[in-house]
Amino acid sequence: MEGIMVSAATGAMNSLLTKLTALMGEEYKAQKGVIRDIAFLRDELSSMNALLEKLAGVETLDPQVREWRNQVREMAYDIEDYIDSHMFRLRYELGKPTGAKEFFRRSVRMVKDFGAQREIAGQIQELKARLVDAGQRRDRYKLDEVVVGSGSANCVSIDPRLPALYVEAANLVGIDGPMEDIIKLVADEELYVRKEDYAIAEQSDEESLINALREFLKDKRYIIVIDDIWSIQVWKTIKCSLPENSFCSRIIVTTRNINVAKSCCSPYGDLAFKLRPLSEADSKTLFYRRVFGSEIKCPLHLKEVSTEIINKCGGLPLAIITMGSLLSTKSDTREEWISVRNSIGLGLEKNPDVEEMGAILSLSYNDLPCHLKTCLLYLSVYPEDYEIQMEDLVRRWIAEGFVKVEGRRNLMDEGKHYFNELINRSTIQPLDISYNGQAKGCLVHDMILDLIKSKAVEENFPHILVSKHKVCRLSTNCCGQGNVMPVSTMITAHVRSLSIFGYVEQMPLLLEFPALRVLALDRSKKLESGYLKNIGKLFLLRYLRIEGSNITQLPEQIGELQCLEILDLQGTSIRELPKSIAKLRQLKWMLTAGVKLPQSVGKMQGLEELSSIVVDESTPLDSLQELGSLTRLRTLGIKWCISDSHVYKIAFVHNLVSSLGKLGSSNLRHLHVKTDGRQVRIPLDSWSLPPHLLRELINTSDLCICKIPEWITSLVNLNCLQISIDKLRQENLHVLGELPTLLSLTLYSYEAEPKERLVVCNDMFQCLKQLFLWCEVGVLMFEAGAMPRLQALEFQIMANEARSMCNAPDLGICHLSSLSNLCVWIDCGDVRTEEVHALEAAIRTSAKLLPNSPVPYFHRLYRRQE
């Protein structure tokens, strides 16, 4: 169990090693003696990090090893604090705007000072001495031998999941549906492998056993169940022993890792069966059976609290069984049951059943690689039942230094990969799945959150409560509380991350946290702008998130935060930024709720995401032109507030289109443009070069792009398209239908010919999953084989045109084999009610024949008065 927590130290260490390497680079040019000392620090810490990674796989640590690990962790934090401060001081001094001679003179002085100043040399020598001492203790106590010898000591003698294998079938709950689904996947003709054929002699090595199994199975029809596989490599080895023949054999594999499941099913991905949480009815049946024998025996005064406990278990059978076993030992007093309910997610009491559940859940955690354990521990900063937004979580990981780029991915893409891995390993629950399969957020089950928090507190990873010891990460939930923790009782000089959820009168002063890298003020509706007056003193700050409707402005000091990479103001009422914002050269993400485009925005060359930026009559044309120089920009969100009647509208449009053209030929991936409600036109079709990397182009219905650009067919990376055009024609559908990676399409058009008939042919939209057509067309028809992956469809038709133009009143809905959600808006003008009923019935009958049997939702427009 302790091994989970070692990852917190490795997370800090990896970030530090990267910085030590940078400090030896050209930018800082230290003298040779100092470089040697820094190289010693880096090499010694690398060696210690290797041991920490070994410790991450050990469940129970020797006390001496645990103490050494804790000291190394604290030392790593102290070294990083010093390195960050020193690197900032160098970067800040060298980065001050001066003439060439003054810049050269200051550079020489700083290089000399780095090697000569007693303070710096003394600091490095002190850090070096601490490392030497830690290394000597490692050798003196032979910690490496302790770790090597701990393998056998940490073996679990009895698998905690073993009792589940011997539960009587009659006592199982909620398996009827899943059992039938699995039977459909494997059932065929009669199977035969005789019982007496099972005996295979024990082999001395893996290869011999594989050969023996292949020989035994080669001429047989078999069904084999392989339970609880954890890695793809293990499956590849097992698969070698299972010969492929023509006897229609079946293999069933269980795993809690979706990547392993996909590997086992390859190339038949649709054969993966994903277990779902128990329904509310099945959850109640399991719970009441465990506690009382049946629901009818539950006392009335415990019904309400029982339901609340069941809901907190979230349909997880393990949690329901554990809570049922715990409550079966309690008295029938409502107060005691309420106490148990309140303890879920806050640290359950010591109980054999609870400990058994923790041991089972820990199996998943122990299987995580070190970097994912670190990221998972970070979730403990969030309150219970908090809906965590994926992109915000990833940005926090990046600010903490937990994300390390692999291959050609950037930091955000790599962080999303971490997030998806945690989902695939069933440690977090996905929320709001997007058109591309990416979850926009997640929840942490109360039981898992309780386990994470208990381990994180042991590691001093985030600290939730009051502490008299050094705190590195501090999180507090002020919602509904009278006051916040007394900061004076803590050692806050080393706090690196501060997360405050809610607001109280006695908010901690920002000056108490000089080493802060991450500051998140969530759900702080009563927070005033004055609270931020000393924000410029937090010169190491990398991440700043503010959520408070009373926050209307940022202090001019914001420009002093030269390390700031992430600024999230989406939850504020800020509409204009101070001029000093342009000084933030390291800023990568600026997220707002609609602020005016900053002056001198062209100086912010580090920007990768700029969202909800307002362009209105007060926007300088120069700033709009400078926008095109941000060549690193990957995501841009603009709110266009220039009316078509504005005297300088042509100049504004020209500068916007020019800037978008430059960004599109650079790194632009996501472009979102909306208006203030007025209908405007922007000729995006006039871009000189196509935005070849574009993945999302989203415009609101009020913004018309005049016509579909000719270059749109070259966008081989485009996943999502939402546009409004003058008139929707059949040729438009043909053009868009050829986009090879398009997953979601929304089209707005209010000037289509009233009797236009549109046909989606069988060779169009081969990858499309969502189609939303807000167009006044007569009939929309779907040919056989059209859109084979379409899952969601919403469109509008005219009932009178469908009656006169369409021989098949179901419009071809029966051809959409993957459809799950269907919504049809019917213009009922000039037709009788019974004709509308007939059209709806035809569509409904056709939908029932589809594999997913979608239930259509109908909306009637302009109903005829009879």
Largest beta-sheet characterization: 16 strands, parallel
Low-confidence stretches: 1-10, 151-156, 193-198
- Which percent bin holds the helix content? 25-40%
Mean pLDDT: 78
Sheet/helix structural class: alpha/beta
Taking all Cα atoms into account, the compactness measure Rg is: 31 Å
Total count of domains: 6
Protein name: Disease resistance RPP13-like protein 3
Pfam family, one: Rx_N
Domain NB-ARC: 189-294
Domain Disease resistance R13L4/SHOC-2-like LRR: 494-854
Helix/strand layout:
Blueprint (H helix, E strand, L loop, with lengths): L2 H21 L8 H24 L7 H32 L5 H17 L1 H23 L2 H6 L1 H4 L22 H11 L19 H12 L5 E4 L5 H8 L10 E4 L4 H8 L14 H12 L11 H11 L3 H11 L6 H10 L8 H15 L3 H9 L9 E2 H11 L10 H14 L4 E5 L5 E5 L2 H14 L13 E5 L19 E5 L16 E5 L20 E6 L17 E7 L16 E8 L12 E7 L5 H6 L8 E6 L8 H16 L5 E6 L4 E2 L14 E4 L3 E2 L15 E5 L5 H8 L6 E6 L7 E4 L9 E6 L3 E4 L9 E7 H7 L15 E7 L5 H16 L8 E5 L5
Parallel strand pairs: 1-2, 6-7, 7-8, 8-9, 9-10, 10-11, 11-12, 12-13, 13-14, 14-16, 15-17, 16-18, 18-19, 19-21, 20-22, 21-23, 23-24, 24-25
Antiparallel strand pairs: 3-5, 4-5
